[in-house]
Each structure stands twice: as structure tokens, then as C-alpha cells.
Amino acid sequence: MKEFDLQTGRQGMINVTRQVREAVRESGVCDGICVVYCPHTTAGITINENADPDVVRDMLFALEKTFPDRPEFRHLEGNTTAHLKASFVGSSQTVLVENGNLVLGVWQGIYFCEFDGPRNRRFFVKTVG
Ligand code: ZN
Predict the structure, then answer these.
(1) Domain range holding 97?
(2) pTM above threshold 0.85
(3) Ligand 1: distance of its center to the CA of 72 in Å?
(4) What total of structural domains would you count in the chain?
């Protein structure tokens, strides 16, 4: 298993595909699966378009509209919307590994999603053959 550290901004999606590819290469696994996992409750991992940066911007905008802050929320930390977004996106992604490479579409990238930064974050990559 490989661990990566990240320093995030307030909110955003950070493309971590390069780091995941590197972890898969280092694992030496040729055919198997790769799990990308983040151990946080207000951040997540997702796969989406890597070409047009407006897709990331639109996704963050839509998540903001879908999970607005509400006066009815009780959580004292005041970041319930971030918890909701994190559960919606999920804390991990699984990608197939074939011939030592991630099986991703040309337009797909793996993103670490920050919903309550800035914070020091980390994520793990485990490749199983
Ligand atoms: Zn909280």
C-alpha cells in the first residue's frame, strides 16, 4: 500500500491520476485491481473528465446547489454540507489493472475531492494482483 499526502484548498477536485499510476507501477502488479481510498469524512475520491476543467467547476457548483447549508442542521462543527458531499461522492474508487496499467478511458481522471479545506489530507493506493 502506498500513502500520499496532500495540502488542499477550501474546496476543489485534485487530479491524482499520475500518483495512482506511479503506485500501480511500483506495486509490480500486472493484472488485478487498484483501490484508491481516502480516510476522511469531508473529502472523497471520484473518477470524471480530465480534459475540460469546466467539468470540475460545474460539478462543484452542482454539489453546492444539491447540498446547501441549512439552518436545521445540528452538527456543531458546522460542516454538514461537506459530510453530505463526501458521502455522495464516496471515499474510494476501484480501477482495473491490466498489463501493469490502469484501465481508464482517455477522458477519465481520478480526483481527490476536498469539501472542507484547507487541510492536510492523505489518500491510499492498494494494488492487488
Ligand atoms: Zn463535521
Answers:
(1) 2-128
(2) yes
(3) 15
(4) 1
Distance from Cα 42 to the centre of ligand 1, integer Å: 7
The position carrying cell 460539478 is: 59
pLDDT (tens, 9 = 90+) of the chain, 129 residues, equals 999 999 999 999 999 999 999 999 999 999 999 999 999 999 999 999 999 999 999 999 999 999 999 999 999 999 999 999 999 999 999 999 999 999 999 999 999 999 999 999 999 999 999
Q: Return the amino acid letter for 41.
A: T
State the distance from the centre of ligand 1 to the C-alpha of 78, rounded, in angstroms.
6
**CA 77 to ligand 1 center in whole angstroms:** 5
- Parallel, antiparallel, or unpaired: how do β-strands 92-98 and 32-37 relate? antiparallel
CA 97 – ligand 1 centroid, Å: 35
The CATH number of the domain holding residue 31 is 2.60.120.460
Cα(60) to ligand 1 centroid in Å equals 19
Q: Residue 54 — φ and ψ, nearest 5°?
A: -65, -25
